[in-house]
Amino acid sequence: MTVLPIGDRIFEVGASHPERQLFDCLMPTPHGTTYNAYLIEGSEKTALIDAVDPLKTDVLMNNLKEAGVEKIDYLISLHTEQDHSGSNAAVLNRFPMAQVVGSEKVREMLATHLNFDPDKVRVVKEGERLSLGDKTLQFTLIPFAHWPDNTMVWLEEDRILFSSDLFGSHYATPKAFATSSAEQRVAAKAYYAEIMMPFRQQITRYTARVRQLNPRLIAPAHGPVWYNPDLILSRYEKWTGDGVKKLVTIPYVSMHDSTRLMVERLAVKLSAQGLSIICRDLGQQPDSLSLETGHFIMDLVDAAAVILATPTVLGGPHPNMAYAALIANAVRPKARFMALIGSFGWATQVEKVMESLTGNIKAERLPSVLAKGLPTEDDWSRLDALAADLGARIRGLPNLIE
Ligand code: FEO
Fold it and tell me: Which atom of ligand 1 is least distant from the CA of 195?
């Protein structure tokens, strides 16, 4: 049980889930996660912002007990997804006088996703205020950060922004506040990659808005509270901006080493031009697909180029590569260049299949290099030409970032 004070009569009372290894059956969470719920005790009314994942309902209820909560006037739902609203029913069962408060979209989605009676939701509009006495909450709609219903709430007197999933991270820690540790930075980046990157245009606008608001604290729905908001805002500004790093990410699969040799050659030639190269082996171990694809998706936040390297299996890409390509396509990275390399046994349709899997990636396509069996001298030459061309193009980009 943990009740973490984050301000004057403001507590984090949600649940930590350090043993969670995978989120959305997709995203590796090596540091687990948290489902944050915030209790705000005003002079007249008490509000609970969000509940927790149903797996951790008991933790939330115990925390509310430990905090000595005798009444909740408002259960404020910033987002309907089950990791934040899944234990609403338990909260309402314990505090039946609590009024559920949410946007029109939250109201609609609570009905469709949790069979909650929409007539019991008090709807708040953009900019609307809710008084707790000496504390005032103001609502801001942030659709598609990352669901249509996401909402932020601003605690005016304390200058705390409760940002829903936005600015979150899958990072379980017994402490309330974030540090500047590399581990926490990587967790926030991985979270941005999978959850927020597909909505980069919207997230750019919301980040600018929050920067203007100048909060004292940012309290997201996952991970630690940002005690120094600039830590996360400056990263979001970089991640959502148009700049890319001199970085090439190469996810690859190799069954009999032909593709691996090509990846190594390309990596050496690119690296000799001063570029950073990350190679992700999607097939080395039973859990490589999940873990390395997760890392690859994070690379896509600021990589200038992506090289997909795969052998041909039954005419198309190795299924592990198809999996990685499908996710990369879904998160819509800002990579400027993309190419396909790999080997095949006797015939291949891999270019056609890969193109059909990556239509959302707007990167300029460079010529593929596909070798029949072990690469020949001609294949090595084509690979070297690809490296030279790609290196020159990246170095010539106008908006490179460190
Ligand atoms: Fe953390 Fe979109 O729920």
Answer: 2
